[in-house]
Design brief:
With 374 residues, the protein is an alpha/beta fold. It contains 15 helices and 13 strands. It has 2 domains: 192 residues, 3-Layer(aba) Sandwich (Rossmann fold); 172 residues, Rossmann fold (3-Layer(aba) Sandwich). The strands form 2 sheets. It has a 7-stranded parallel sheet with strand order 3-2-1-4-5-6-7, with helices on both faces. Strands 10-9-8-11-12-13 form a 6-stranded parallel sheet, sandwiched between helices. Helix 7 packs across helix 12 and helix 10 crosses helix 13.
């Protein structure tokens, strides 16, 4: 008998936190399921993270941008034809699949990992109502307490349908890697991120200009995305040529983290970013904007360096860490200890495996109000 088929729908299967998490889960259980992956934008570049042992297909589904009614018909037809064990969708970009399954054909699991820049400051009413109506019968997975509060208080989804399941990290991979060789001299401030608008990397470049005016250092930005050309132009205009390295896409980032002295993230919106977990696993201090669950993820010793979304505040946090190497090391150790205690990926694997299989998950939020206020 063939293993059950899971149909995964991503707004994009480019390399990102949710996609990397899925790849890790799938690779952990290579024989348990078959997988079909649909990327709404056609980008399947994260397939490089999938083990060759996996049984994976990429079905051709007729997707027409802006044609909601036509897409719903097409997706419902695909669900009838494929009859997956479960439909697993991610974020707003895949919501049309949830609508297509409103009169349920298959069991539906929906994951929410965060929002784009259009929902940075507030929830859009149309999206709130769509989620409220079409996710009520779905199992909704939320990796952050911020998202859990939104799903409970704003989307008003039934608490029994919600699952709080924090991300996990491969601690051994980030703890033992050999540091990458980077050009230049001086301490290294590092960032790994998709180069998209909501990451607000212009803020990081402007803050770094304030840093180098006082203390020689290097900035390394790992990742690829649509904002890269603009960011390179901005770095040059700020006089940072030769001090900022854009590495592009890094298939295996562990060695890059090990070359950093400080990790930084200057996003306008986040929830539970995998890159912060990776930095913690690599024993790094983190200077970050105070968004999503970042503050609660990090060790308490790191709290002074989670700052407002402001260039000067980011620069001051970086300068303090650059000037105090012993503090950097002690915070890095504390972050690693917290990652070992709270975010071991094996716990995450077991929860997702039970969820995909259709079993009860220990983290069901049957008492969501209590959980949200913790």
């Amino acid at each position: 008998m063939s293993p059950p088929l899971l149909l995964h729908v991503f707004s994009s299967f480019a390399v990102g936190g949710a996609q990397v998490r899925f790849a890790a889960i799938a690779n952990r259980y290579p024989l348990r399921w078959r997988h079909a992956i649909v990327a709404m934008d056609g980008d399947l570049s994260c397939r490089e993270r999938l083990s060759p042992e996996l049984d994976v297909t990429y079905p051709a589904i007729d997707i027409r941008k802006g044609d909601t009614v036509g897409n719903i018909r097409s997706f419902r037809h695909a669900l009838r034809e494929m009859r997956p064990h479960a439909l697993i969708t991610g974020n707003w970009g895949a919501i049309e699949w949830a609508i297509a399954n409103a009169m349920p054909l298959v069991r539906h699991i929906h994951t929410e990992d965060g929002f784009g820049p259009e929902e940075r400051d507030r929830q859009l009413p149309r999206r709130v109502w769509t989620r409220r109506i079409f996710l009520r019968r779905s199992t909704v997975v939320l990796p952050s307490r911020t998202l859990l509060r939104i799903a409970t208080e704003i989307w008003r989804l039934p608490p029994a349908r919600l699952r709080y399941m924090p991300n996990g990290i491969d601690l051994s991979r980030f703890g033992s890697a050999t540091a990458a060789e980077l050009p230049g001299e001086g301490p290294v401030i590092g960032c790994v991120a998709a180069l998209r608008a909501e990451k607000n990397l212009p803020r990081l470049l402007r803050a770094f200009r304030l840093v180098v005016a006082e203390l020689p250092s290097r900035l390394v930005i790992g990742g690829e995305g649509p904002e890269r050309a603009k960011l390179e132009t901005l770095a040059a205009s700020l006089g940072l040529r030769g001090r900022v390295l854009f590495t592009g896409h890094v298939p295996e980032p562990a060695a890059l983290y090990r070359a950093f002295d400080i990790f930084t993230l200057t996003s306008d919106t986040e929830q539970m970013p995998m890159t912060v977990l990776e930095a913690m696993a690599a024993r790094l201090p983190v200077a970050a904007t105070d968004v999503g669950d970042i503050r609660s993820m990090l060790a308490p010793e790191n709290n002074d360096f989670v700052v407002p979304c402001d260039d000067r505040a980011v620069a001051d946090a970086l300068l303090t860490l650059l000037r105090r190497p012993e503090l950097r090391r002690s915070i890095g150790v504390a972050n690693r200890t917290r990652a070992e205690r709270e975010f071991d990926q094996e716990v995450m694997f077991q929860k997702y495996a039970a969820l995909f299989q259709g079993e009860a998950v220990a983290e069901a939020v049957s008492t969501a109000a209590t959980t949200v206020t913790q």
